Amino acid sequence: MAIEIWLNPACSKCRTAVAELDAAGADYTVRRYLDDPPTAAELAEVVARLGLEPWDVARPKEAREAGIDLPREPSARQAWLEALAEAPRAIQRPILTASDGLTVVGRDPESLGRVIDRG
């Protein structure tokens, strides 16, 4: 089983997640999402697996800086997905997906552990 991690190498939380994956001997692939941004469709799949809305995975400061000023309501869901795809820096990180589909925003040890255990 493998894990995919969307990361920004300059992010300390991303570096911590990679260190945890390495320490666990996990099989994983890295997607540098700033160099290889997800499409709106890929983001839709990820937020669905997370059980969240697109605005829930937006980094507030970076979203403001990118000019993303959309209502947080279902009618704006597609616009959020497209805006985040255009401004990937505004997406929370790291996002990890286990091969069984379990997806988490790995900003804390508990979330990281859930994916590593399922790897």
Structure description:
The protein is an alpha+beta fold. The protein has 2 domains: 1-33 and 93-119, Glutaredoxin (3-Layer(aba) Sandwich); 40-90, no CATH class. Helices cover 41% and strands 14% of the residues. It contains 5 helices and 4 strands; from the N terminus they run βαβαααββα. A 4-stranded mixed beta sheet has the order 2-1-3-4. Helix 2 crosses helix 4 (77-86). It is globular, with a radius of gyration of 14 Å. The model has no long low-confidence stretch (mean pLDDT 94).
Query: Helix and strand string, N-terminal first?
Result: EHEHHHEEH
Distance between the termini: 6 Å
Model regions low in confidence, pLDDT < 50 over at least 5 residues: none
Number of helical elements? 5
Estimate the global geometry from the Cα principal axes.
globular
Mean of residue pLDDT? Answer: 94
Broad CATH class of the largest domain: Alpha Beta
CATH superfamily of the largest domain: Glutaredoxin
SSE class? alpha+beta
Q: Taking Cα atoms only, what radius of gyration do you get, to the nearest Å?
A: 14 Å
Please outline the helices and strands.
Layout: E1 3-7, H1 12-23, E2 28-32, H2 40-50, H3 60-65, H4 77-86, E3 95-98, E4 103-105, H5 109-118
Parallel strand pairs: 1-2
Antiparallel strand pairs: 1-3, 3-4
Helix pairs in contact: 2-4
Protein name: ArsC/Spx/MgsR family protein
Family: Belongs to the ArsC family.
Pfam families: ArsC (PF03960)
In short:
By secondary structure, this protein is an alpha+beta fold.
List keywords for this structure.
single chain, 119 residues, alpha+beta, Glutaredoxin, 4-stranded mixed beta sheet, 5 helices, 41% helix, 14% strand, globular, Thioredoxin-like_sf, ArsC/Spx/MgsR family protein, Arsenate_reductase-like
